[in-house]
Amino acid sequence: MDHVGRRIAARDVTRSFVTTGRSTVHALGPVDLSIGDDEFLCVVGPSGCGKSTLLKIIAGLLAPSSGEVAVEISGDNRIPIAMVFQDYGIYPWKTVRANVELGLRLSGRPPAERREAVDDWLGRLGLTDFADVYPSALSGGMRQRVSIARALAIDPEVLLMDEPFAALDAQLREVLQDELLAIWQARRRTVVFVTHSLEEALLLGDRVVVMSARPGRVIADIDVPFERPRSSAIRTDPLFAKLRGELWSSLHSEVVAQFDAGKDPR
Ligand SMILES: Nc1ncnc2c1ncn2[C@@H]1O[C@H](COP(=O)(O)OP(=O)(O)OP(=O)(O)O)[C@@H](O)[C@H]1O
């Protein structure tokens, strides 16, 4: 799929961390990656290869050790970047409604507009009946839905999602994948989506990049040719199985290498 314009450009990005034992972990890179305007990019790679680190650098939450990331921002009134974290990142002292409303409040949207958007997103993510409860009363899957609703409600220019469905049961995961597909197809935005699931990457992405074992580099970059609008029915397409096989053959040796590298040194 062709994407007009480039939204994110990472050039020679690396990141190292000094651990508590004072050794240095070279976590990421060098990574060169361009992400198009309104492109849905999925990132897969072995556990610990630096995927979350890359997302945090794109989000501006973490500085690269070297290299640079440029994110084109339109400059209109929208929030430039929102991120959905693996561990939800929602506030336990705020109700579900207040959590989802937070970004809208920070961006100065008027109360009536905020209420309308929050009600809409609570409904879409099946949270309407839980609007006034606190996160401690929710299951892990529901907390993650709050986090997703909060990010989508602010309609950012760039949406970064770090394994957002990992904590969900298999059925709910499929429901939310379909919902995200429908939302994105109706209103395209630049999305960078980290997942461990090759099926999820092929279902959702325009493009899938595979990262190597730590320090994570891009070792494969494939275009996903399925027409949109898509539905989960594409899982039964023989091409789906073929692409999954190609991704897995790139990834397999990296997963083994990362595993053999042993315990995470953090
Ligand atoms: N703040 C930190 N201090 C020290 N080491 C860190 C820090 N953050 C990440 N690391 C290390 O950097 C490496 C990459 O971590 P990162 O969380 O980016 O990997 P990941 O690919 O997202 O992993 P997973 O798929 O398991 O979530 C790991 O070895 C991790 O221990």
From TrEMBL:
PROSITE patterns: ABC_TRANSPORTER_1, ABC_TRANSPORTER_2. Transmembrane segments: none annotated. It comes from the Bacteria. InterPro entries: AAA+_ATPase, ABC_transporter-like_ATP-bd, ABC_transporter-like_CS, ABC_transporter_ATP-bind. Keywords: ATP-binding, Nucleotide-binding, Transport. SMART domains: AAA (SM00382). Pfam families: ABC_tran (PF00005). One of its GO terms (molecular function) is ATP binding. Residues 8-238 form the ABC transporter domain. This is ABC transporter ATP-binding protein.
